[in-house]
From TrEMBL, chains A, B:
InterPro entries: DhaK_1, DhaK_dom, Dihydroxyacetone_Kinase
Protein name from the UniProt record: Dihydroxyacetone kinase subunit DhaK
TM helices/strands, residue ranges: none
The keyword Nucleotide-binding appears for this protein: yes
Organism: Haloquadratum walsbyi (strain DSM 16790 / HBSQ001)
Gene: dhaK
GO molecular function: ATP binding; glycerone kinase activity
Length: 335, 335
């Protein structure tokens, strides 16, 4: 399998450089690290940071900018950033108001963010952490105790970023993050495996006519392998499973992400979206907003995930607030 | 090859529905057509429309919204919309100030837009057309007399959309479109063929270790097939070829798109971007802005294109002006 790369060993390093050279006025790389921060911090604002393995672009650094993240640490492909880098990240993004770390629930990420928090606290940086575990497919998994953190993290970034931009305290910002986590669920599926740069071939075998439901963003096993399903069957199955977990009352408003895994044409995501919306309607839910695109990918995997978040006035205001990042821009209401 | 579809015959129809159900407050479908328009037209503004074959998403309808397009017609996959649909499109987007059609240079598109313009003029809609032919790779091609229209069209949409939003007359709007066309060039490459929904298998054969340089967005033949190249070689080759065509003076400012073909991980595009920027620097050009992502795709093709547009104060102002569309949002300077 061919890829547009140079030396696989330099893949993440070169990607980080490529992001900075694309957005030199937005992003700054901390020397000798794979930590990116926004070009200049905002005094008096709680810092919002995240990090994790690479291969999920535009997650993580694509969401750095006004109204979302202040910084992100990139690990090697599908590998947690080191505690040292996460400590550097937290320190780099603190203006004295403390730093909120948005952690996806993988054992390596949780452990390294924990250690980094202890290291940063020694340097008088107050750190809070919230752990996203939105994947409803499986309870434990290959790299996870408890549920995996996947595309619902985008809603967490948006809410905590907006709350911090509005002047929220560290405690208040963490609280809205927890609120999103309590109200969001995601499930994914794959038509094909992803191909990591180091290996250069498919990570797992999936027959030409097989698909895998409930798969994770690193290709971790899901709930079942089945024969090929139609877009309608896929969209319905994923949405039903998420709703089964969230169990929202009829009439509830929801925000939705139909997310591509990296190798899926946008047109196919729109076709899946029809079934997602029909399923929401069948449950008498009211779609407040839908996002369709590649928000949290798995390299070149073909497949999609469906994320549903129930929203109230507070979350709607935070989700709709202005944001200006490479991967997500909201013009705001006054445009 | 599996795809997330239902009946291939309904692919475009369902995609158009999926776009409307994702963005019901932004997009309206004209009954019994594959024409999408913005939810409500702006009185006194020149209408900006485009169209072409499907399979290039987010092109075309993804650029409908404030500051860009008023409407777009979707043909079947890689097939021009009919003259009837394009006539409907022009009429639907006219508020009395006339309509500018942005046409990519393919024989079917040019012919059908020409016929549609004649039909619309009968209904007293003043129509101007501009034809984008930014692909520097080949002079004539499978579906083309003269050069192909590819990803440089995004810059055309942005400039004419901003000019129209600023109150420009039909003549003035067409003039800035021609100005972009005169100053933009693109070249693409592919690692793999795309797979159309109808055929379900690769459109053309490319060996496991081969790539094709100068390829079109429908998989039309390029300039050469070669053994696998590194990201650096690809980025350099494409950029050098575009610059060879544009021949900008040292010190010129340029806007750049590193565009994915649909199946390429975003991380790889950032790696290619390093070579693009190095090449621009070697030519003593000053990068004013870079966009990296999937702007004009070829279904699930793996590959990329590089677009360079030389910019002056007028084009920079138009490119930076606010826009709010599903695929491209600009917050504007006052954010």
């Amino acid at each position: 399998m061919q890829k547009l790369i140079n030396d696989p060993d330099n893949y993440v390093d070169e990607m980080v450089d490529g992001m900075v050279s694309a957005y030199p006025e937005r992003l700054t790389r901390v020397d000798d690290t794979k930590v990116l921060t926004r070009d200049s911090l905002i005094d008096g604002k709680v810092g919002i940071v995240t990090g994790g393995g690479s291969g999920h672009e535009p997650t993580h650094a694509g969401y750095i900018g006004d109204g979302m993240l202040d910084g992100a640490a990139a690990g090697e492909v599908f590998t947690s950033p080191t505690a040292d880098e996460l400590d550097t990240l937290a320190q780099a993004c603190d203006t004295g108001e403390g730093v909120l770390c948005v952690v996806k629930n993988y054992e390596g990420d949780v452990m390294n963010f924990d250690t980094a928090a202890e290291m940063a606290e020694i340097e008088d940086v107050t750190v809070e952490q919230i752990v996203v575990d939105d994947d409803v497919a499986v309870e434990d998994s290959l790299y996870t105790s408890g549920r995996r953190g996947v595309c619902g993290t985008i809603f967490v970034h948006k809410a905590v970023g907006a709350k911090a931009a509005a002047g929220g305290s560290l405690e208040e910002v963490a609280a809205v993050g927890e609120k999103v986590i309590d109200n969001v669920g995601t499930m994914g599926m794959a038509l094909t495996s992803c191909v990591t740069p180091a290996k250069g071939e498919e990570t797992f075998d999936l027959g030409e006519d097989e698909i895998e439901l409930g798969i994770g963003i690193h290709g971790e096993p899901g709930t079942e392998r089945t024969d090929q399903l139609s877009a309608e069957e896929v969209g319905t199955h994923l949405t039903e499973n998420v709703l089964d977990d969230l169990d929202p009352a009829a009439g509830t408003e929801v925000a939705v992400i139909v997310n591509g895994m990296g190798g899926t044409p946008l047109s196919e995501l729109f076709i899946v979206n029809n079934a997602v919306q029909s399923t929401l309607e069948a449950h008498e839910l009211d779609t407040w907003e839908t996002m369709v695109g590649d928000y949290m990918t798995s390299l070149d995997m073909r497949g999609c995930s469906v994320t549903v978040c129930t929203v109230d006035d507070e979350l709607k205001e935070l989700f709709a607030a202005p944001a200006d990042t490479p991967a997500l821009t909201r013009a705001g209401d006054d445009e």
